[in-house]
Amino acid sequence: MKRLMTIGLAAVMVLPMAAVGKQYQTNGYPISPVPFTNVKVAPGTFWGQRLEASRKVTIPLAFSKCEETGRYTNFSNAARHLKNPSEVFKVGGLAFDDTDPYKTIEGASYILQTYPDRKLVAYIDSVLDIIASAQEPDGYLYTSRTQNPQQPHEWAGDKRWSMEEDLSHELYNLGHMVEGAIAHYQATGSRKFLDIAIRYADCVCREVGPNPGQACVVPGHQIAEMALAKLYLVTGDKKYLDEAKFFLDHRGKTTIVHDYSQAHKPVVEQDEAVGHAVRAAYMYAGMADVAALTGDKDYINAIDAIWDNIVSKKLYITGGIGATSNGEAFGANYELPNMSAYCETCAAIGNVYVNYRLFLLHGESKYYDVLERTLYNGLISGVSLQGDGFFYPNPLESMGQHQRQAWFGCACCPSNICRFIPSLPGYVYAVKDRDVYVNLFLSNKSTLAVAGKNVTLSQTTDYPWNGDVAVTVDQNTVGSFALKIRIPGWVRNQVVPSNLYQYTDGKRLGYRVTVNGTTVADAQLTSDGYYTINRKWKKGDRVQIHFDMEPRTVRANNKVEADRGMIAVERGPLVYCAEHPDNHFDIMGALVNQEPQFTVGKGEVAGTTILTLTTDAQLLNFNRQGRLETTDQALTLIPYYAWCHRGSGKMRVWLPQDLKATNPSLPATLASESKVGSSCSVPAISSINDRLVPKDENDRSVPYTHWWPKKDCTEWLSYEFPEEATVQSATVYWYDDGPWGGCRVPQSWRILYQDAQGDWIPVGGADGYPTEKGSACTVNFNPVKTKALRLEVTLPADNATGLFEWSVR
């Protein structure tokens, strides 16, 4: 198959948009979304640039990676086995690799509805031919088994569905297939992908359920629930909705009962966000969909309680969710570490899904306040401005151990970004009867169906850089309707809809709304958080909105240990951070003034103009004599989403304002001034001599390196000293993330020194090589005069090894 490297640049051609049959106008929610196909985002704007990068770069890249990494080959191999059962293949990769093509097709289908492109349509058709060829006669489509039914993927189990609640991801694959197929159907009118998905969904409905002869299992990784609800809306076949409800109703009642996959209790009894954050968010979104379609109030009560738990105790200021890498999961209440924050990009997308659905259920602006915070910060941080670099986790602090990646072996986040960004226009407006909700502020032109008739609106703004928005009525055939303009929480002095974060600067921002230059007498801010103007609108009516937009300082609830004594800085919907390229000093040692004043300036990141903030700060550092010194510095901040475009280095969102929260720069040591070497490439190698040590074995707030996935081998790290030195001890802090992770303390280790001839010699007189995880493991030895030292590590037979720090004296 030809590599698809230029689909985004293909000539734009007009394609007929086929009717999509039973297009679902009623989705069960009290409020109806306005389809993204009805909202045309202006090019060259904040979001126009993002959509263009997605079209020209991200989606072509994702398709090319599907080719390069064998995603399509898996389908071809499965097809070859179906034709010739004696031909089998070794199954590798991940059990959910099939979803990467599905998700990329979904995103490409969204793009097609905005930028019709025959070449892209033809390419997708060629991919669908490959996918269809791997489908078994009864509709089952899971290449991790079909390539080699006798020796399937190690996560697949010995028969269908046998490991679904654990690792197989068969139903997860179905969910993404259905989502992609519906998007493709809407974009092209072709049933090609939809029929593939329906056949697999029918297979699942036959084989998975509570009846005799069926596998009574629920998805190990949720998403099938909301996908099947959507399939019901498209087809009108209620069995798909029934299957989705079965998946939810039986959760916590089947084989695996564990909070990691939110199966620790029935969903209607859950009131706290726990476990794997992506699984959780997808389940909550599915519960909302099924509740809207069935009227199940117990689902709604449970989601409301869980949402309150998240926004009150488990939401990062960036809108990220999922505090810990241990299970990619929510932490305990108020557990919001910064450097080790996981905040997976997929979880941010899931957070948008949940808040969007809760808005459609309840019609309150607070859900969009959370959605907007996530969207502008913890979600778009996951993809570079150019569209070709990705984050899996999105931490709020870094010592330089985080880098944007061109792709991942586990590619769920890049492919999820592929499908989300092009769908963004669908989040701008919503309609209920004669109420028109303006929820997001971005330049666009849109056509809305209000009371069965058309209303055309255009919106112009430079948001999020300033708070001026103009909404013009270009056409109105309905007469009177209420325009409901969301007044963001950040304007109304509310960081989030809880006491988790509070503004601390005493400012009171204001807003103005006028129609044709005049304030409307009976318009008002209603209790749902919307400024509501009800009138008979005429063509050319112009609503002008102004939000005061100033830098604000924020403090976290004192129960958030990681943020005590610190402030974060926001302007409008954007959270800001300090990063190394803008500050030629150690930003970790900066102390912000008690009454900080900010200057707004302009900067550029990755060829894109941004607004910067600058404030006075003091730099605290220890000199070589161990004496604390202070110097005045100007501290420059950039929007958080734009960090790590200019090389890896230090970054932080939360800035010390109280002395108790400061981290004065430490004096140089022999190790910190050494050149680090290694036997092989390891991540965050600079962490071993950054002078940061863990509080205990569970501390993930300091960087570490590791040799995962290597095991049962010997590796080494080395220090080349600035000049010859005499050393007689070494201390290592071992990283061990058992029982979930893949690193354990080493089987053994030793220290070697380099002699005058360049040979590596074990040190003599070593008094022991301890292997206690997270603690100071010190070996003393006979003094040696050398230019270099080597740490040699023998990894366990079944695990890798990692370390936080290696110091020498």
Structure report:
The chain has 809 residues and is an alpha+beta fold. The protein has 14 helices and 30 strands. Strands 3, 10, 15, 16, 17, 18, 19, 20, 21, 22 and 23 form an eleven-stranded antiparallel β-sheet that branches. Strands 24, 25, 26, 27, 28, 29 and 30 form a seven-stranded antiparallel β-sheet that branches. Strands 1-4-5-9-13-12 form a six-stranded mixed β-sheet, with no helix packed on it.
Strand content: 15-25%
The low-confidence runs, each spanning 5 or more residues with pLDDT under 50, are: 1-25
Percent of residues in helices comes to 25-40%
Structural class: alpha+beta
Task: Give the distance, in angstroms, between the N- and C-terminal Cα atoms.
Answer: 59 Å
How many DSSP H or I helices? 14
- Major sheet details: 11 strands, antiparallel
How many runs of DSSP E, i.e. beta strands? Answer: 30
Estimated radius of gyration? 28 Å
Shape, please? globular
* Rounded average pLDDT: 94
